[in-house]
Specification:
Cytochrome Bc1 Complex, Chain D, domain 2, mainly alpha
Length: about 130
């Protein structure tokens, strides 16, 4: 196969590794523009998206992707969220957003969850732009 591709063994190994990693990665390809619309419809009532944004009912979601849970200074998190010990990775957000109360029983977040997986992908893509 290496000869058919015209690649040396090292290059062929690199191609195979890249393909394996791509196959193992989640296929989340959300649209951040649509995700901003989802945010405005579903999240903005309770959360700011602004850097340094003051809490509304919930903390700002600026730079939430990659942030540890319950880590915004001065916000009064539930005991459940304080002890959840999560990091808001894309994977964790895919679990949390469809069912916050199931993922973190006892959370103060009363949102029932975002059930449409395309909207979840789009919302996370938008949140990932907030840096």
């Amino acid at each position: 196969m290496v000869r058919l591709l015209g690649l040396g063994r090292g290059a062929a190994a690199s191609v195979v590794l890249t393909m394996a990693l791509a196959a193992a990665a989640p296929a989340w390809a959300g649209d951040p523009v649509k995700g901003k619309q989802v945010f405005n419809q579903m999240c903005a009532t309770c959360h700011s998206a602004a850097k340094g944004g003051a809490p509304i009912l919930g903390p700002t979601l600026f730079a939430v992707v990659g942030r540890p849970s319950a880590s915004i200074k001065g916000f009064s998190y539930s005991t459940a969220m304080k002890t959840a010990n999560l990091t808001w990775s894309e994977s964790e957000l895919h679990t949390y957003l469809p069912s916050p109360a199931k993922t973190v029983p006892g959370t103060k977040m009363t949102f029932a969850g975002l059930k449409n997986p395309v909207q979840v992908d789009d919302l996370i893509a938008y949140l990932d732009t907030l840096r």
